[in-house]
Amino acid sequence: MDTQEILKKVRKIEIKTRRLSANIFAGQYHSAFKGRGMAFSEVREYQFGDDVRDIDWNVTARFHRPYVKVFEEERELTVMLMIDVSGSLDFGTRVQLKRDMVTEIAATIAFSAIQNNDKIGVVFFSDRIEKYIPPKKGRKHILYIIREMLDFHPESRETDLGGALEFLSSVMKRKCTAFVLSDFYERKNFLQPLTIANRKHDVVALQVYDHWDRQLPDVGLLRVVDAETGTEQYVDTSSRSVRDAHHKYWMKRQIRLNETLQKCQVDSISVATNEDYVKQLLMLFKRRS
């Protein structure tokens, strides 16, 4: 894409996703995602029932009667968008590519976040860390992120979600909310790095898939290329047993993914490229409120 085309696409996505985040998600996002902890606010005189561990001994000594520290929840968040840029995202048979939907969802979350005065950062990953954009605030920063998502060319086409999660755990020293946007076509087990990442941070999994990932149509002989490995084969989709085997493989993968997410206590949604991701995001936010 040339620069003008990219800028037009950025503007189009901004108009759509800003409207969504302002009109629909503002309240839900605010209540669904909590601040990173409790921050010191003020001191007041000790009252019966207060935790003695909260006594401010310096103030107590000065006024010769007990005072306690008062804490309040920090509302400001750091949000990390963990964006899968592997080859399997360059696929879509209904409405749009998986990559296009990931970009829209990420932009919607980003605009919701800046309305809450949160910082936004991004990790683009394949089977390596392709690019890291440190968290910042503001519309200009988000437009830069959207532009990168639209025109990013990864060095690799394979996936290593575990490696991306390990990078998140090492680079983010303070607690953040991390949205993992991927189709989760992952050949390796990522249970351990996800467990570690979700203990330190608040990880949310957003799966995007195509209808054909789940169910092949009957369209006769079909040439299929694995977008990540380049392996090519012909599939006879007119065969009921072939279509059934494909669906069973999908279901097996989904069961394994859901089991992993449940073990790690990670909230998630799964949305097809021809479905309304707005509805799914709202359901996720309401579950967490």
Question: What does it look like?
Answer:
The chain contains 9 helices and 10 strands. The strands form 3 sheets. The protein has a 6-stranded mixed sheet with strand order 5-4-3-6-7-10, sandwiched between helices. The protein starts with a helix and ends with a helix. The longest helix is centred in the first third of the chain and has 30 residues, at 3-32. The relative contact order is 0.14. The chain is elongated and about 85 Å long. Helix 3 packs antiparallel against helix 4 (139-151). The chain has helices spanning 3-32, 57-63, 98-115, 139-151, 161-171, 191-200, 211-214, 240-263, 277-288; strands at residues 38-45, 67-73, 78-84, 119-125, 129-136, 177-182, 202-209, 221-225, 232-236, 267-272. The chain is 45% helix and 23% strand. It has 289 residues and is α/β, with parallel strands linked by helices. The mean pLDDT is 90.
Task: Provide tags for this entry.
single chain, 289 residues, two-stranded antiparallel sheet, 9 helices, elongated
